[in-house]
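re: that complex we talked abt at group meeting.

here r the seqs, copy pasted straight from the sheet so there may be weird spacing, ignore it
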Amino acid sequence: MPTEILAETECMRLLANQTVGRLAVQAGRWPLVVPVNFALDGGDVVFRTGPGTKVDSAVHRGVGFQADEIDLASRSGWSVCLVGWQRWWEPTSWPIW
Amino acid sequence: MRETEGDHVPVIDGRTWLEHLPKRECFELLSVSAVGRIGVLVDSAPEIYPVNFVVDDHTIVFKTNAGSKLRGLVRSPTVCFEADGFNHDEQVGWSVLVKGRAEEVRGPEETSRVEQLPLRIWTTGEKVHWIRIRPVDVTGRRIRPSPDRGPGPTRQGR
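got the structure back, here u go
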């Protein structure tokens, strides 16, 4: 199957229709990869989490994010990868969604 | 890899309703997965790339070409490998996370061995570098159906 490079607008359209993605944070020596439920807010990826590794590891550091949709039968699919900076809201100021 | 109590029996987290999977089951799930994702440090940010892979004697084996993924894991061989499976309608799924060291397969004997593995690569074009991840730690989690969990928000177009 040939590989097609997707335009950024197409990447964001695909992300908007996906509900599970994977966050990569550098935790000690490890670039941990953990699945999260997410939503898009404009061009930002937004997810909720409790206290723990995902928050502790990402203070002022770059993070990676990836989502995909894979069809095993036809051995095809799409994958969108991005890197960015993570920040978070305290519970008192979380937007309601 | 060190042995722990969770190697053999599933443990359920009462707060999150997550089931922590025994290592044996983690490898069983990896063995039937065609696609996994490698987390590797590239230019100081962790990046995730999907790859076709096979399990070979409790190691992860895949092929790649020269590029940012290969450059990243050569510079920083401590990598993570993740595979998962989800049922979006029922909001259940599993994920397995492998922490390990990546190394390029070299030498005629090792290369001959990995070339016999049943690795099916979906993309066209020859990939020339064989990579093996030797696990240091393997953990797995499953989201179980919870009776008090309501349906999530629906997305347009799904």
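couple things i noticed - Residues 152-158 of chain B have pLDDT under 50 and may be disordered. Chain B touches chain A at residues 34-35, 37, 39-41, 44-50, 76, 78-82, 84, 86, 88, 93, 95, 97, 99, 120, 122-125, 152-153, 155, 157-158 (CB under 8 Å).
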